[in-house]
Amino acid sequence: MGRFATVASLYEALRPPYPPQFFRTVAEKLNLSRQHSLIDLGTGPGLLALGFAPYVGHIVGVDPEPAMLAAAKSAAGRAAQTLTLIAGKAEDLPDDVGRFDVVTIGRALHWMDREATLARLERLVTPEGVILVCASFSAADGRNPWLDDYNTARRAWSKESLWSESGSAGRTHRDLAGFFRGTRFHAADVIRVETSHEISVRDLARRVLTFSSSSPDVLGDKVEAMLRDVEQRLLPLSRDGVVTEVFASTAQVARR
Questions:
Q1: What is the 3-state secondary structure (H, E, C) of 9-36?
Q2: CB under 8 Å to 212, separation ≥6 — which residues?
Q3: 194-228 tens-digit pLDDT
């Protein structure tokens, strides 16, 4: 069983979402059309692949976790979209997988071997193609007054070593120029879309379970204690058990 096997059923519903406006904005800025093909590396439950599906002609999702691929297959069925799924790591894709106009990578780049991934991207991306490194996260500029307490609680229930690993996700995303240093790719620009929604304290607590450092597999019989602790910390900051979450969805664009 892989690192994310026990979080697949929660991931799609509880992680900060990529809103429709994000996909529409990126598609417009990149002039995507049905003539373009897209491959999503580390697709998970298919959030990016299916979000961009209406704007391209062919989509492929790659992930090493069978439970995530099953979730992506179910999501594609609900969306009535054709999604080709490949089991395995992005670094291990065969040469005959083809070339793509758009390569998307969400919350997965920090799990990938840099040298092997760069070598694969050289063969995956068409000469005029782009790489989109995407993220969606709670705004940390004070507009989410509950966020500091939430992160404190999350750290308290996370395995320290895995928390450090998960923290590298943000660093990798911020230093995309460093990731591509020495290659023909370069970080070009950033597309950012901000939206907000209402979310219950209960669902915020359950979101802790979607991280590898605090998954049900990691917490074991401590899951209910974690949920109670996080809810108790956040309830005083809520209104009838609900808070407003302002979140940003970003796509860092890399080109040759």
A1: HHHHHHCCCCCHHHHHHHHHHHCCCCCC
A2: 3, 4, 7, 162, 165, 166, 218
A3: 999 999 999 999 999 998 889 898 899 999 999 99
